[in-house]
Amino acid sequence: MKPSVNMLIAGTQLWARKRQSFIAMLGVLFGIAMFIFMISFMKGVNNYIQDTMLASIPDIHIYNDIRTDYASSVTGDWLRNDPAKMIVVHHPRPEKVRLNLKNADAIISDLRQQSEVNVVSPLLSTQVFFNYGSVQLNGILDGVNIIEEARLFGLHDRMMTGRPEDLLTTDKGILLGQGLADKLNVRRGDLVTLATPEGTSMRFRVVGTFAFGLSTVDNTKAYVSLSGVQQLLAKNHDYITDIRIKLRNINNAKGLAIFFGKRYGYKAEDWESTNPSIKTGNLIRDTLTWVVSLTLLTVAGFGIYNIMNMVIASKMKDIAILKAQGFDGRDIRTIFLSQSLVIGVLGAGLGLLLGFLLSYGLSKVPFPQTEFTFMKFFPVVFESRYYFFGAGFGILTTFLAGVLPARKAARVDPVTILRG
Amino acid sequence: MKETILEVAHLNKSFPGPEPFHVLKDISLSVQKGEFITIIGKSGCGKSTLLYLLSTLDTAYEGTITINGTRVTGLKEHDLAKFRNEHIGFVFQFHFLLPEFTVLQNIMIPAMKLGQLSREAIEYNAMEKLTQMGIRDIALKPSGKLSGGQQQRVAIARALINNPGIIMADEPTGNLDSANTQVIFNIFQELSRQGNTILAVTHDRDFAGRSDRIIEMMDGRITNTHGVPVT
Ligand SMILES: Nc1ncnc2c1ncn2[C@@H]1O[C@H](COP(=O)(O)OP(=O)(O)OP(=O)(O)O)[C@@H](O)[C@H]1O
Ligand SMILES: [Mg+2]
User: Fold this and answer.
1) pTM to 2 decimals?
2) Helix (H, G, I), strand (E, B), or coil: what is residue A323?
3) In a domain, A125, yes or no
4) Which among A318, A321, A328 is the nearest to B81, CB-wise?
5) Which of A199, A257, A309, B121 is 20 to 30 A from residue A393's alpha carbon, by CA?
6) How far is CA A149 from CA A55, A177, A197, A223, in A?
7) How far is residue A398's CA from residue A23's CA, in Å, rounded to a whole number?
8) Which of B87, B95, B112, B201 to mutate to probe the A interface, most A CBs <10 Å?
């Protein structure tokens, strides 16, 4: 099919001023390329930060919140039957409370029935002192079912030495955070002594070390079996303080946390509530990216607007000639609008390509390595929706930038021009 | 047999402003098919203004204009454009070609707009018109690189491409030297002989003398008509 006469005119004029058209196109091209580049990088950063921070945080955490009941008092109980008396207790001391989940086994098996739940890992945690030689360090000892724990946090990828399963095959084995192991100067096979604040102590054999890339974890945390901690604390084998859950879809955490909290009568916290800074950081980076990108695209739009206005000012005579020969206002509008759109579509297409190449290039640039970074290259995501959005917004901008000048062109009065 | 191609009744036009200027006063006029008419008059008497009204480019007037049996007065912009494209060939004083296009393309554009023939047929017709103008050899030149006389011949070929009912020209030789002026005069005379209807504004008594009828204007009125309408 041959192009319509309007398209022929639009194309010929556009081609006749290649340089000007090209510069207008460059504006759109760079706008969209930068948008793609920035959004891909920022989303990559968001994902990386989120992954790192969530690496040691479960999607949902169920535990027994310390709720000290100050409303009851011994005096109150005694005087309960006398409504005429009012009891005021000044500055009561909290009662000693048991922090365990009383029906933990039932909760765990119920959770495993839930279709949205992927991993359920029970925990009994305590503060301990790590002793090796004369070194004494403060830390956290997590008693876990190591198979579940490994699935929960992807421990297999985080082991520096040993394997998570070694905990099962070794009597009184312990996995140490790499930072902790370094400070204690112990390695696989060494024995460390753990002491609780209550004064009990026990010896464990180091079977492996792990690193999450978070110093707060790697410098303080150690894993032993659930029964290990239960023994250390002199508790029953069903004594559990926390249940951590990994969901099939992390975005459902908020709703499910509320549901589980109600269902089991314990505090259930989702990762977002535990770590509001993740969302805040994402939001700030997202906002920055969008503001900068949209500004670039809008500026490109103004560029097109200016150039099209200039073009139309210099094409008054041609518009008058065309009108005298039977082109109506709509034809003129079509001619100039399609010129803007060609600039926009070409700019958008090449912009996407350049944006992709820049993102791809960055994703191959090695990330400066430190002990705790697991990232080999700069983090970049490749998601088609950003490409669709970039193209759509770029074309929309050029369309809007083209509409006003094209409408002005359509309204040109040929007589005024032809009179000279 | 007489066939009226252009019928104008009681045209009045004023340019609005603080002091409205009544530029055309009660113009009535009728043009027969095949007639070659020239309009003469002093500068500023309203000749161009009249021609813009007749060519339907200017619609701000009172009175009625009927061309080829269609009353164009009151038609919408879109319909007027279509009508112009099909029925009116316009030649300006300045040649006014589209500079980005070749000579051939300039001539083909109105026919492509009309859209009745294939590109090949249009191109063939355009070459015919160029041959008629004696400038077949410049068909593929960019229109910006022609002499004034050549440009005006291209403009005439363009006006002819849709075989319009009437050709209107506003001082078609106003910008040319005497040799080129003669060429254009001859072309118009030849076109007239071939049966085209021509309405041309001119300052040139010699050119006017070759037409079938001369309409003289003064201060926005037709004051005199020489010659007899062909029958
Ligand atoms: N837009 C306008 N507003 C006001 N007055 C106008 C306008 N256009 C033209 N005129 C006036 O209308 C009168 C007629 O102009 P027109 O161009 O029709 O004259 P003309 O007979 O073609 O003159 P010339 O022989 O110089 O071409 C002139 O006095 C001119 O100044
Ligand atoms: Mg004039």
Assistant:
1) 0.75
2) helix
3) yes
4) A328
5) A309
6) 12, 14, 25, 9
7) 13
8) B112
Give the pLDDT confidence score for residue B122 in this predicted structure: 94
Q: Do residues A228 and A158 both lie within one domain? A: yes
CA distance A294 to A31: 8
DSSP alpha helix (H) spans, A251-383: 253-264, 271-274, 276-314, 316-324, 329-363
Pairing of the two strands B221-226 and B213-218: antiparallel
Q: How far apart are the first and last CA of chain B?
A: 6
Q: Which of A324, A344, A321, A323 is nearest to A403 (CA)?
A: A344
State the total domains in chain B: 1
Q: Which ligand is nearest to the CA of B39?
A: 1
Instruction: Tell me the H-state helices in chain B.
Output: 47-54, 77-87, 103-114, 119-133, 148-160, 178-193, 205-209
The amino acid at A287 = T
Both A144 and A241 in one domain: the answer is: yes
Q: At what angle do helices A276-314 and A384-410 cross, to 10 degrees?
A: 30
Interchain CB distance below 8 Å, B58 and A415: yes
The residues of chain A scoring below 50 in pLDDT are none
Q: What is residue A76's predicted lDDT score, i.e. its pLDDT?
A: 66
Round to whole Å and give the CA distance between A45 and A43.
5
Same-domain check for residues A45 and A65: no
**How many domains are contained in chain A?**
2
Pocket of ligand 1 (CB under 6 A): B 15, 21, 23, 41, 43-49
ipTM at complex level: 0.92
Residues A255 and A287 in one domain: no
pLDDT of B228 reads: 55
Our CA-based measurement puts residue A416 at a distance from the nearest CA of chain B, in whole angstroms, of 10
Amino acid at A419: R
- Closest residue in B to A416 (Cα) is B58
How close is the Cα of B171 to the center of ligand 2, in Å?
7
Residue in A187, A63, A201, A66 with CA at minimum distance from that of residue A128 = A201
Q: Domain containing A140: what range? A: 60-70+90-274
* Calpha distance B40→B51 (Å, rounded): 12
Report helix, strand or coil for A169: helix
